[in-house]
Amino acid sequence: MQAAFIRRTGPPDVIEIGDLPVPTPAANEVLVRLHAAAVDPVDTYIRQGLVAMDLPFPFVIGRDLAGTVEAVGGAVRGFAAGDRVWCNNQGIDGRQGSFAAFSAVREDLLYALPAAVGFEDIMAVAHAGLTACLGIERLGGLAAGQVVFVNGGAGNVGRALVQVATGLGARVIATAGTDAGRATCRADGAAAALDYRSPALADELRAAAPDGIDVYWDLSGRQDLAFALAHLRRRGRIVVMSGLGAQPVLPVGALYVNDVSIVGFAITYATVDEMRRCADRINALAADGRLRGAIARRLPLSQAREAHRLLEDKSVRLDGKIIVVPD
C-alpha cells in the first residue's frame, strides 16, 4: 500500500513515499481504508523528534484519519465492513500513523462518522474540535451565560472553541488580527470580535464584558497572565494549552485573592473515555452544522512532504486545515 513514512526524525525531507505492507488488524483492531487525513502541528513535532516517544521505524506519519472499515478483528463488535469512521489517535504510543492507504486502529479509539458529515469535513474540525471540547471538559464544563474570552479566535482551534462554547450557551468574545478574521469570529457566534493588536484592547474588552469574564483562553502562546487576571471575575479560570517555551510572570496575589485557577492540558494525554465523550459531542455539532472548519489546502498523499513544509512555513498563511487524500 502507499504510505508516507520516516526512517529517522528530522526536517520534512526525511518523509518518504513508498509501499508498505497492509497491516493485519489484531483482535481488537479495525482496518480502515483512508479517505482523508489532516496535518496537525503535533505531527511536525513528532517528525522532528521534539516529542519524546519511541517510534517504530519505518514510522507512518500522521494522527488524524477518516475512512471506511475494510475489515475487523475477531474481538471487534462495534464496527463492520463499510462503516464510515474517523479517529485522532494514530501515530503515538507506539501506534503507526494515518498517512497510509490502510491503518489498523484500535476499536476504542475509533468513532462512527455521521452520514451527514463528509470525510474531509470531519478532518477539518477533528483535532481542533477535540482540543476545544477537552479543554471545556477539563474546566468542568461551561454554564449558559458565562463569558468566555478567546484570544485568537480565527485559527483552527479558536474557531472550534468559539463555535463549541457558543453552542453551550456561553457568551464569547474573541480576537483576531484581520478584518476577515474578526468577521469569521462573528460568523462563528462571537458576540464581539476585537483586534488583539489594538493599543486599546484592555478598554475594548472591558466595554465588551463590563462585569468581567469567566474563562480566559489564550491561543497566542504568549500567556499575558497579568492582563488575564485584570479582566477575570472572582473564581474565573485561565486555560493554558500553548506556549511550550513561554515563561510568563505570574501575579500571585491577584491569582489567589480572587480564587482564580489556571488549567493546563494537552490533548495527547486525554483518556480514552474523555476522547470518546468529546468525539460524541463533535459528531452531534458537526452533523447539525454547528461545528464547521475550513480547508486551506488539499494535497494527495504523495505530497505529504509538501504538506509538512507548508504547515511549518511561517510565510504561508493557512486559513484552515491541510487535508491529505489518497492519490
Quick gist of this model?
The protein has 327 residues and is of the alpha/beta class. It is 29% helix and 26% strand.
Q: Identify the CATH class of the largest domain.
A: Alpha Beta
Q: Report the sheet with the most strands, covering strand number, pairing sense and barrel closure.
A: 7 strands, mixed
Q: In the CATH hierarchy, what is the superfamily of the largest domain?
A: Medium-chain alcohol dehydrogenases, catalytic domain
Number of strands: 16
Strand share of the residues? 25-35%
CATH architecture of the largest domain: Alpha-Beta Complex
Report the structural category. Answer: alpha/beta
- The structural domain count equals 2
Order of helices and strands: EEEHEEEEEHEHEHEHEHEHEHEHE
Q: Might you state the CATH topology name of the largest domain?
A: Quinone Oxidoreductase, Chain A, domain 1
Query: How much is the average pLDDT?
Result: 96
Number of H- or I-type helical stretches: 9
